[in-house]
Amino acid sequence: MCGLSGEVRFDGTAADIGAVGRMTEAMHERGPDGCGLWSQGPVALGHRRLKIIDLSEKAAQPMVDGELGLAVVFNGCLYNYGELREELRGAGYRFFSTSDTEVLVKAFHRWGPACVERFKGMFAFAVHERDTGRLILGRDRLGIKPMYLAGDGRRLRFASTLPALLAAGDVDTGIDPVALHHYMTFHSLVPGERTILNGVRKLPPATVRVIEADGTATEHRYWEPSHTRGALPEHAGLSAEEWRQAVLEALRVAVRRRMVADVPVGVLLSGGLDSSLIVALLAEQGQEDLATFSIGFEAAGGEQGDEFAYSDLVARRFGTDHHRIRIPDARLLDGLQDAVRAMSEPMVSHDCVAFYLLSQEVARHVKVVQSGQGADEVFAGYSWFPPLAGAPREQAADIYARAFFDRPHDGLAAIVSPGLLPAHDASGDFVRAHLARPGADTALDAVLRLETTAMLVDDPVKRVDNMTMAHGLEARTPFLDHDLVELAAACPAELKLAHGGKGVLKDAVRRLLPAQVIDRPKGYFPVPAVRHVDGALLDLVRDALTSRAARERGLFRQDYVDRLLADPEQDRATTGVNTLWQLGLLELWLQTHGV
């Protein structure tokens, strides 16, 4: 797990190694254990290293194999690197390290860009071919590892974080109106290739892009889970009990895969079903002295600030080395500002500060954790899924938008400045186009595909990556194992929707977990003090929205901002997000990153 960066030139000049150095240094938190730069003519690569597999300097990056004519930077982990290495050895390849990075190098040489189809893991990488001058960029199936791009006809730069590209300089930092529409509509996230900035794009998940020496490029999307009942013929005709056993076995494999490391692996234990199940399966497989970590905050506004009763129950049941981390309110404001600094893109969820502060403490004990993100999207755990059951396919977009969009398109005119408001319903168009694609049997299937391959990538997955890597902590997410995701996609909807959502999962684990954990109401990271915009938080937001930078940027109508500041709790999005916080967070992020 690391941070990568690079530049490739198309105008006949040498790559700017200074710019790559600045990008690399901007990501030092992602890789505190080492730093490397390499350049050759029009290409330069940079890397910050977090030592997880092969702790020796033989695994340092950029990794250059002169015999094969390849130079590589890689961020992530190939959980099946051991099996791939043995297969490659059988084909005659020799290895000088025990790293998964070197396996990627040899795998690319043997199978070319199609090597990604053999990888089981999370990854973003750049490979430069010496003999052709081509640069190949790749990203894992579910976008767990990020890849940001900024370029023009003369060059392309890429990095694991957006702020790293800003550190290199010469980025168009104008606001993208379509991205702003998404941010204000689609649950405060920007899906797909766009970012809030005109000059920065993302390599989509499950994509390999091949960039020729002259700058022309082709790309291939190599995976998308089929949300159809016939997607996995070997599972046709399974009974409900057989589906439960298939899901449980796939999750066992996913958890086991993510124990691959040369350092200890812990678990972020919220006390909910998903993280508790990971602990149970690790205990089942004989894991001893497992370190588990839970976080809690002070109660506020009548809201409880922790779920320690559940996490303690699980920790006692499985005898883990459990760490209760309680955060006083005095740390929250600084933690919030630090979390904003750690965001590659603006993220409204108050979970961010919880993940940031939790990761800060966890990183003092371990360098790798497993986490339960993704189960709700993959196994239909959210409240907006049941209304889609049996709905006509053509009504899916409208039903989903009513439950999930922050506000309708026609509600933006009173909020967003006219010059930044697209004439068309950009977010609605995005969702309608996604849901209309083939490969999903029903309205619910189409929405689950959207959640798994778009929303999940640019909200919870990004949140976990950014907040953990801000402290050099690698987070692994077994519910996003692509084999498990494919299985869940093919599973009958009624099994997933049972028991209020995630039914097939709940029924599969009743012999492993206490009923209090399985059947409890759905919980979230509780951070009561930042759910309500008042006190010091209100001062922070007011300063951001009334600053000279905000006035000159002019994203929002001033009369609307003034009304919110006069009554901070007056307006909440459909999803419950405080609108003042949504506006303030965006401006805070832009100012924090010098935009």
UniProtKB/TrEMBL annotation:
Q: EC number(s) for this protein?
A: 6.3.5.4
Pathway, according to UniProt? Answer: Amino-acid biosynthesis; L-asparagine biosynthesis; L-asparagine from L-aspartate (L-Gln route): step 1/1
User: From which residue to which does the signal peptide run?
Assistant: none
The family database entries (PROSITE patterns) matched by this protein are listed as: GATASE_TYPE_2
Question: Which keywords annotate this record?
Answer: Amino-acid biosynthesis, Asparagine biosynthesis, ATP-binding, Glutamine amidotransferase, Nucleotide-binding
Enumerate the Pfam families for this protein.
Asn_synthase, GATase_7
Q: Which reaction does it catalyse?
A: L-aspartate + L-glutamine + ATP + H2O = L-asparagine + L-glutamate + AMP + diphosphate + H(+)
Name the family the entry cites.
Belongs to the asparagine synthetase family.
**Could you tell me what this protein is called?**
asparagine synthase (glutamine-hydrolyzing)
